[in-house]
Amino acid sequence: MSKAKTLSENLSRAFAGKLQTNVVANDEVTIEVAAMDLPGVCTKLRDSEEFRFETLIDLCGVDYSAYGQTEWSTGQSSSGFSRGVQTATHGYMSFGDELPPAKSGRPRFAVVYHLLSVQHNQRLRVRVYTEDESFPRVPSVINIWNSANWYEREAFDLFGIHFEGHPDLRRILTDYGFVGHPFRKDFPLSGHVEMRYDPEQKRVIYQPVSIEPRVLVPRVIREDNRYFDLTSDAGKK
């Protein structure tokens, strides 16, 4: 039995009734727990001698709206240009546009934790979905892994996910007066405002975006013998 499958079985036994899913794929283990169970599960994952996940490697937010939908999937290489011109809704939205639903039917927002056990040389992925799409929130794990401090601030800044119990939850990458959360699927790729230096006011100012989002898809014309009809005159040259 592989190490990942052994870990998965140990997790099922230790957290019976609290794991919503327990999946082994590509020799990696991913579990899902409810937000209310997150602090207890994470504390046991860190402290239990059986697991000893003492290190939080990473924490990130996920926006699953429009999940499984794409404008680029194709089985024919010749169909790329038209798909680039006729863009899908998500990714090129204006403020207030309605998002297409996710094909999976899962909640929109989730938080993913990547854990490392140095003692057992094991890794684990923990995923928690937020229940309220309008105000996504999960408990903070800063008291379990102190490294979660900046990670949770980043997820709050970019996705608008609130971490209850965080002592200093504020933006970390965008400006203090920034409007919106840039990693959400309904946030326009060009943003809402642009900034420039105004020589008259002698300061940086913000103004509405002056460019229109568009897709630039290069058209490649291939001229070699693979694309000539060998029975034609062109093929004889």
Word description of this protein:
The protein has helices at residues 3-14, 38-47, 80-85, 148-159, 233-236; strands spanning 19-25, 28-33, 55-63, 109-117, 122-129, 137-139, 162-164, 193-198, 203-208. The chain has a five-stranded mixed sheet with strand order 1-2-5-4-3. Strands 6-7 form a two-stranded parallel sheet. The protein has a domain at 3-64 and 106-179: NADH:ubiquinone oxidoreductase Nqo5 subunit (Beta Polymerase, domain 2, 2-Layer Sandwich). Mean pLDDT is 83; it is low at 79-88. It is globular. With 237 residues, the protein is α/β, with parallel strands linked by helices.
Please provide a brief summary of the model.
This protein is of the alpha/beta class and 237 residues long. The protein has helices at 3-14, 38-47, 80-85, 148-159, 233-236; strands at residues 19-25, 28-33, 55-63, 109-117, 122-129, 137-139, 162-164, 193-198, 203-208.
Radius of gyration computed on alpha carbons: 24 Å
Number of strands: 9
Mean pLDDT level: 83
Report strand order across the widest sheet.
Answer: 1-2-5-4-3
Uncertain runs: 79-88
- For the termini, the CA-CA separation is 61 Å
SSE sequence, one letter per element: HEEHEHEEEHEEEH
Share in β-strands: 15-25%
State the secondary-structure class: alpha/beta
Question: How would you sum up the major sheet?
Answer: 5 strands, mixed
CATH classification class of the domain at 3-64 and 106-179: Alpha Beta
